[in-house]
């Protein structure tokens, strides 16, 4: 089992920045690629970003490329999502997730992720 707890959400004006963190506990953190997803009201959960087990490979949804940066700190068992130039359409509940360790390639599919945090709300005002 892996337990994931997100933090760092809040209310920000368009153009502002937020940094989300996700603390992991339980099984070996380095066994898992990690990802961020988000879900806006009335919409399906969508992929945002993923990072490999080593941290050497990242992949982003097209709409956040150049604005968001995913990173991981293995010493602290955390992953982070730095979000800059935020837009109202980024408003959503953001979830971190741990990918099934048998999935070797970066995955954008929520179904490939075994463990999920409770989510943190990000609201961007115009």
Percent strand? over 45%
The residue-averaged pLDDT reads: 95
N-to-C order of helices and strands = EEEEEEEEEEE
* Total DSSP E strands: 11
Instruction: Look at the helices and sheets and give the structural class.
Output: mainly beta
Low-confidence stretches: none
Shape: globular
| Relative helix content | under 10%
Largest sheet: 7 strands, mixed
Number of helices: 0
Distance between the termini: 40 Å
Give me the Rg, rounded: 13 Å
Topology of helices and strands:
Blueprint: E1 2-7, E2 10-13, E3 18-26, E4 34-39, E5 46-51, E6 58-60, E7 68-73, E8 78-83, E9 92-99, E10 113-116, E11 120-125
How would you describe this protein?
This protein has 126 residues and is mainly β. It has no helices and 11 strands. It has strands at residues 2-7, 10-13, 18-26, 34-39, 46-51, 58-60, 68-73, 78-83, 92-99, 113-116, 120-125. The strands form 2 sheets. Strands 2, 4, 5, 6, 9, 10 and 11 form a 7-stranded mixed β-sheet that branches. A 4-stranded antiparallel β-sheet has the order 1-3-8-7, with no helix packed on it. Strand 5 and strand 6 (58-60) form a beta hairpin. It is globular.
Which key phrases capture this entry?
four-stranded antiparallel β-sheet; mainly beta; single chain; seven-stranded mixed β-sheet; globular; 0% helix
């Amino acid at each position: 089992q892996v337990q994931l707890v997100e933090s760092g959400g809040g209310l920000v004006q368009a153009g502002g920045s937020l940094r989300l963190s996700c603390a992991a506990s339980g099984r070996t953190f380095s066994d898992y690629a990690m990802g961020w997803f988000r879900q806006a009201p009335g919409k399906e959960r969508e992929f945002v970003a993923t990072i490999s087990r080593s941290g050497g490979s990242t992949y982003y949804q097209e709409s956040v490329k150049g604005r968001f940066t995913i990173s991981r700190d293995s010493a602290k068992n955390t992953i982070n999502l730095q979000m800059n130039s935020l837009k109202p359409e980024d408003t959503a509940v953001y979830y971190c997730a741990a990918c099934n360790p048998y999935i070797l390639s970066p995955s954008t599919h929520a179904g490939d992720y075994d463990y999920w945090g409770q989510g943190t709300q990000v609201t961007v005002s115009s």
